[in-house]
Protein 1
Amino acid sequence: MKNWTSIPITVLGRGSFLLGVVTIALIGVGCNLSAPRSTPSLPSESLQTAPNPAVDATPATGAERVYLADNRVSFLPPTGFTPLTPEEIELKFPNANRPQQVYANDRGTVAVAITLSEVSLTPEQLPELQQVMESSLEQAQPELQWIERGLVEINGTRWLKLESITPALDTDIRNDMYFTSLAGQMIGFNFNATVDADEAVQAELLQSRDSIQLQP
């Protein structure tokens, strides 16, 4: 069975700025990625528009929009992804702080984890969040390799993007994480896959990312 690890990170900013504890649904060292589920770049200060995948951006047939947080958040999971049960989430994320929703393929090698945090965050704090998150993640995962970091725009909302590769027990993992403010609190998406599966599913994960919509 594939296991993830949730890394609680105390995020402190300059002066009196305190975000609190951020839980990252980050796949990393010590994960077992060999078995199926039990049940079916450079830092940037500029705002960019998230690039579209080089394929038709129309959601794959059969994908259904998922609504979360009293319908304030919605997205299209990749086709064939199903939600993990609370028991599966607890098993795969053994720490007390874990994502509220996780959608994964049948083998558990690719997943989308959504964290609705009580941590206070405003859009103006995203650049500072980037600095402290980078530092904290590098300390938590010394072998982490950055791919892309910076601010991007998805459907009119500014997000902090942190994309990296981290080592696991039997393979490397690509984590493509996004954070923003929703009603004054932090929300995070993590699109992750084993490097072996990443090339085959990357376009679908990008389509899923580009489908995220927030309602204030």
Note: Residues 45 and 127 are 7 Å apart (CA to CA).
Protein 2
Amino acid sequence: MPFAPVTNYLTIAFLIMVLTGMWLNDDTRISFIAGVIVLGIVVFSFYAFGLGKRTRVDTQIEDEDEVINQ
């Protein structure tokens, strides 16, 4: 992409400005807070259920072979 590293930072800055605007506007503050809460629940669930764990491929294959052979 043209201007690759710069456009990433500009996009992040724009999103931060939008979120700041949502926080400062009384009409959208509740939506901002609700979004942060939902995002927190999703992140918590991701790590609580172990979806963020990485397993080695050979270990995963051995586990699958054990399940198939039972």
Note: The radius of gyration is 21 Å.
